[in-house]
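Ex. 9. Protein: HhH-GPD domain-containing protein.
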Amino acid sequence: MGKPITRSHSRSIVEPSSTLQSAAAANTSLNPSSSSSSKIPYRPRKIRKLSTTNKIIAAAAAAAATATTNSFPLSTVKPLSVKGEIDLALEHLRKSDPLLSTLIDTNKPPTFDSQSPPFLSLARSILYQQLAPNAAKSIYTRFLTLCGGEAGVLPENVLSLSALQLREIGISGRKASYLHDLADKFRNGSLSDSSILEMNDDTLLTSLTAVKGIGVWSVHMFMIFSLHRPDVLPVGDLGVRKGVQNLYGLKELPQPLQMEQVCEKWRPYRSVGSWYMWRLMETKALAKVTKKS
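Predicted structure tokens for HhH-GPD domain-containing protein:
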């Protein structure tokens, strides 16, 4: 398969150097079969007043939202890993957005089939943050060895590992504190694999960003690629933002509010729409490389 509002404390803010870094990170930090990772939250900014053109877009989005809500009650939308759900998503996106329909027809459909427990996925996400792919994979492999394999990545086992033990395998002191904070919240009952699966998106966002080292971007990626939530729009992801800019011919990179408005027509399958934005930017990047060669 081919990643907001950020808390100010203990958050590393990184601007991605390329769209591919953003898209690849979306897969790798939460899906071990992918090849690259980074964390891309963004700082809240003052949103500029929308132009007349954008107000028209917003009005159209509002109308689309009403139609979507009537056609797809959110309570009936299932995880994207459920058989047939991708087909429903693609059917809806083709009907609601002709520009996206063309993109869908030129790319293979997405798959969402990773089944890692939430705690393991979140720990892996922390370890992969802001590291080159090979370095992250090497550290993650050593971490698994300490824990006795993926099945041993449990809160009590992580808490039993000292900061010194973690540093010896290449995990920074800061990331060690992030892992311990995550494990501690699982141990004290603030979080659990079962409660995470039951939380709605808003509650999950609030609960997970309370963990040190986990920002909104990371939570969005977790919801899409680990929980397979269908209606997540990662408004802070550079790849998705660039994709929206290119797809709709916007003069400037859309800010979060405009992203919400423009992509409203994708609801309740904004996760799938976002996936195609990564594919769009990958295709454009590949075309540039081919042209240069």
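Check your answer against this statement. DSSP finds 15 helices and no strands in the chain.
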